[in-house]
């Protein structure tokens, strides 16, 4: 298959062959894994890279001086450079975390610590308190909502939430009204993990810049699926997880503008992030090390670098295009079935490849069970976005989230099954 | 069409119970009660333990909630099973039901004491659904604890 | 080799064959890896367990309802049960973290959050402020010192430090004097990663209990090397890392008494740790889930469980005995070389298998380089324990930390090299 | 005995320079200065840039610190190299030395401008030690920045 041609079913099948987990039977059917929005499968190249590290270079990083330790450090830092290149950041702007959730919490606690007077003079710019406002949106994953609720509770600041419209797109008029001069931070997701909405980053950044607020981007559902350049998006911080982009579990990334990372007080403290420690006090290294206390996820960072090599070889633009096709096919197929309501906007230009839907009269758990019986793995529930589900009037939804290794045949199998599910549960109309 | 396994999960008695929801509707007056929630899907149930005047027999369970067919059917079948039972016998039945649910498809030696609720045996093959089936039963345990605490 | 016989060199060589990384040449010599105190090597069984998970069960845990997700959840929770059994805890007393450093920070931030009024009524017992005292020791790794310095800075509490004596054992008279009624928390390491000192846990716990203080045990250097039962030790919290005990990087454990974990406010917030979330507020699940926000280190937890199986098969008592032998041999050999000073106590009963030393007139980096030239991997530096090094009068030391896969021949090779190193650098006496 | 590689790392000129420590001892009067620390081992150096009255030529570097033989030798050899040099030439020499250190054993085309400090080439084969060799040179950069800021 050529890098220049779009990904078709034949190409997808070739890619799929690189993923051992995709090659299995579930309940007597070949697995159709359509839950990549929760976590992606891993190609052999990633598993090999991790294993190769453990078998040949495993040692403490940034601590040892012996040969293995030096090699391990080099590979670990090469992985950081790889991630930085992938998102258009400088090397020292990439902080390893255990996942996107920790990355978002890191920012919230860093601000909390600055607000408690820690971090010295340079940290003052982050301090917030009563009268200050944090803004997020109604469409967020809990990981980009609760940390800000808690930050507000710790500091006395107020949390404002930009509402979404009936089609789950942001109410931009409300956004303009809510982002006032008291706003110190605006956090929003690039792409929704439920409604598939791709948020208007440039407009939101402009609103934040106009009032001098920091911008935090939840890039969990964009970085794995489309080309993302943090510099072009002009955000201050961005967070994403390795496991959703072919990488291992247990590794995530915080991007932060260098100047900000070097001013933000540390979050986790311990070994390898200090210059001098006395019994009274510790002096901290510059970023990114100041945020990387303790032994890091070394093998996982190296695995993530291999995942990026794989994604780069496939091409993010091709991935994005393919997923848009699969998503549109899914959307059309599902929307045509009586009693099924697809969440999110109908305009394909506003959507990622994800499709979440409600089957009238059949609980999402039962829908999921019916699909699982055919070897189709999709996710049911609130997908860690309770407020959004509440707003859209459903407790739980059924979510189909494809990746570039999925085929149209798999999408069609879902559509077929969805066409039968209401009858199976005794509903007819 | 579903597989035979799926058919044994969604038996007719279960699908019907999930629609009939015996015991649905909370009583206005206070009774020992408990609320349970399945955090994955947001399903929930509030259940009241209504006893006779002596407090020694179940008159009827009363509950409200929303959830998948398994959780609704389970609440309905639990209501059927417990009506008129001595309260003292409840822990044993709940224990037996839990054992059945954790049996991973193996069942229990004697499921007679569970009445129609034994039809939920198929759930035990699907670990992710055990929580759904247990929801009402856990709520009943909670209500009994509240009643004991008084 | 029989489980009942002590580990001898033949047995150690058989174990070593299970560790691919040990079977390589470094600078023309067979690698002698004596840096397990920093991070251990991994047996094939652990690498296979992780890979098997990725190839067959990889899916989101505690979120999905499809077959793979259910299997992944089951394996993940089985791993937790394995860890719990290994340390004598209940299943819900084991919280996954990215490492010991995060585990210790979790406690510190939980207390911080309680002190800021979060966590409701039940969290009040953790609240501290001006007038309250936290106690740690001079012998700590930075991971068990800086989080408490920061907690003190955030809350206004005071940090007291139990000094060590010249042989690096704790000054227990000072401990008794410092642990007064104002003390709310006592944090200390079970085994020092530098001086090899095994601290008197029972005595320290008794001092803490007498004043109602919580006890936090840094078990990083004990759990991998000796049988540890948290219930018998009667500590409130304990922290350790998977990578030091044959497990993957990126996974650690916080043990906490159930009653305490369920009262402590959450630390990281996000998905999978809540019951109900509104735009204003989140309700949290009981422990351990309330501390496990976001996608967890699933493959790593499963790898750690495989590591525990391996350790159990070898036997912790045998490991402890073997390391004591290797440590004693190293101690004797090094102490007999003119110009070498071994840190820590001379009484073998007070020591783990670790030996840190100072070569008079030769900087530790140069010593390390000399050993590395022979394929001997040891660690040089302050080992994340600057205050202890300062107290012992050295900036950096050379640390030999064996595991059960090391042989006496490797120890002897270190002793030989140490005997030459001063001459090589032009020192004679 | 060490390997030939080790011998090329610890050449006689390096071991001697590490003991002689040319330039050791800070001046009491103020000069542009900088402090550098290697966090792994706690090694550190404080270095003063002492210029002639015009400020255009290095009179001599003055420094204090402690560290491994590589870091001490490097400070000593840097002191030898820079004595009398035009300040304007320092950035190029430092840049060349950094290039040499990052060459992973490959060396640079022309290391003549580094004088005896070129003997540190062997360090470039040991990534973990590059920081040691760079310590004094980074401190000199820092001191120059301080001097420029005035
Ligand atoms: C005694 C002790 N405490 C804490 C730690 C920190 O562990 P980690 O770096 O795995 O978080 C270590 C190891 O580096 C240690 O030896
Ligand atoms: C939009 C979004 N944000 C945040 C997260 C949290 O990521 P993680 O669970 O990997 O920390 C997810 C995935 O679950 C997500 O889809």
UniProtKB/TrEMBL annotation, chains A, C:
GO term, biological process aspect, one: cysteine metabolic process
Signal peptide: none
Keyword entries, A-Z: Pyridoxal phosphate, Transferase
Catalytic function, reaction form: (sulfur carrier)-H + L-cysteine = (sulfur carrier)-SH + L-alanine
Cofactor: pyridoxal 5'-phosphate
EC assignment: 2.8.1.7
Residues in Aminotransferase class V domain copies: 33-414
Stored InterPro entries: Aminotrans_V_dom (IPR000192), Aminotrans_V_PyrdxlP_BS (IPR020578), Cys_dSase_SufS (IPR010970), PyrdxlP-dep_Trfase (IPR015424), PyrdxlP-dep_Trfase_major (IPR015421), PyrdxlP-dep_Trfase_small (IPR015422)
Key word Transferase present: yes
Molecular function in Gene Ontology: cysteine desulfurase activity; pyridoxal phosphate binding
Enzyme class: transferase
Domain of life: Bacteria
Family from the record: Belongs to the class-V pyridoxal-phosphate-dependent aminotransferase family. Csd subfamily.
Its job: Catalyzes the removal of elemental sulfur and selenium atoms from L-cysteine, L-cystine, L-selenocysteine, and L-selenocystine to produce L-alanine.
Protein name, UniProt field: Cysteine desulfurase
Organism, as annotated: Mycetocola tolaasinivorans
Gene name in the database record: sufS
From TrEMBL, chains B, D:
Every NIF system FeS cluster assembly NifU N-terminal domain range: 10-132
Molecular function (Gene Ontology), one example: iron-sulfur cluster binding
One GO biological process term: iron-sulfur cluster assembly
Pfam families: NifU_N
SUPFAM superfamilies the record matches: SufE/NifU
Domain of life: Bacteria
NCBIfam families with a match to the protein in the record: SUF_scaf_2
Protein name: SUF system NifU family Fe-S cluster assembly protein
């Amino acid at each position: 298959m050529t890098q220049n041609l779009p990904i078709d079913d034949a190409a997808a099948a070739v890619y799929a062959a690189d993923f051992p987990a995709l090659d299995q039977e579930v309940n007597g059917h070949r697995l159709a894994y359509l839950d990549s929005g929760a976590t992606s499968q891993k190609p052999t190249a990633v598993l090999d890279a991790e294993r190769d590290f453990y078998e040949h270079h495993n040692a403490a990083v940034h601590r040892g001086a012996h040969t293995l330790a030096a090699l391990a450090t080099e590979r670990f830092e090469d992985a950081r450079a790889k991630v930085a290149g992938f998102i258009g950041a400088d090397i020292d702007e990439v902080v390893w975390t255990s996942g996107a959730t920790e990355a978002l919490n890191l920012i919230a606690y860093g601000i909390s610590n600055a607000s408690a007077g820690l971090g010295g003079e340079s940290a003052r710019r982050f301090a917030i308190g009563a009268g200050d406002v944090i803004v997020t949106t109604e469409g967020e994953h809990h990981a980009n909502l609760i940390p800000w609720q808690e930050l507000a509770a710790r500091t006395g600041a107020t949390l404002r939430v930009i509402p979404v419209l009936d089609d789950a797109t942001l109410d931009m008029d409300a956004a303009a009204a809510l982002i006032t001069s008291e706003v110190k931070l605006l956090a929003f997701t690039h792409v929704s993990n439920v409604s598939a909405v791709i948020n208007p980053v440039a407009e939101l950044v402009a609103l934040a810049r106009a009032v001098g607020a920091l911008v935090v981007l939840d890039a969990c559902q964009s970085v794995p699926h489309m080309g993302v350049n943090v510099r072009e998006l002009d955000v201050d911080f961005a967070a994403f997880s390795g496991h959703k982009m072919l990488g291992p579990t247990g590794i995530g990334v915080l991007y932060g503008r260098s100047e900000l990372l070097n001013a933000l007080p540390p979050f986790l403290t311990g070994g390898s992030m200090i210059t001098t420690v006395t019994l009274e006090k510790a002096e901290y290294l510059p970023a990114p090390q100041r945020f990387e206390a303790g032994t890091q996820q070394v093998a996982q960072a190296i695995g993530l670098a291999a995942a990026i090599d794989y994604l780069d070889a496939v091409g993010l633009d091709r991935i994005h295009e393919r997923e848009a096709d699969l998503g549109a096919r899914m959307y059309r197929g599902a929307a045509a079935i009586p009693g099924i309501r697809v969440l999110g906007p109908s305009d394909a230009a506003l959507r990622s490849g994800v499709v979440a839907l409600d089957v009238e009269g059949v609980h999402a758990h039962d829908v999921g069970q019916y699909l699982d019986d055919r070897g189709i793995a999709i996710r049911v529930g609130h997908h860690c976005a309770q407020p959004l589900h509440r707003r859209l009037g459903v407790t739980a939804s059924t979510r189909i989230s494809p990746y570039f290794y999925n085929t149209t045949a798999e999408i069609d199998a879902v559509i077929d099954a969805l066409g039968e599910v209401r009858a199976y549960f005794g509903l007819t109309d | 069409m579903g597989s035979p396994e799926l058919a044994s999960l969604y038996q007719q008695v279960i699908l019907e119970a999930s629609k009939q929801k015996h015991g649905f509707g909370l009583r206005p007056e206070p009774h020992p009660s408990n609320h349970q929630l399945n955090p994955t899907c947001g399903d929930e149930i509030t259940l009241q333990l209504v006893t006779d005047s002596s407090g020694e027999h179940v008159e009827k369970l009363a509950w409200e909630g929303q959830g998948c067919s398994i959780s609704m059917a389970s609440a309905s079948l639990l209501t059927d099973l417990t009506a008129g039972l001595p309260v003292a016998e409840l822990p044993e039945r709940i224990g037996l039901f839990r054992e059945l649910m954790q049996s991973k498809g193996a069942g229990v030696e004697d499921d007679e004491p569970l009445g129609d609720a034994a039809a939920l045996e198929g759930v035990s093959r699907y670990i992710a659904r055990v929580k759904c089936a247990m929801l009402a039963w856990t709520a009943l345990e909670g209500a009994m604890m509240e009643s004991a605490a008084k």
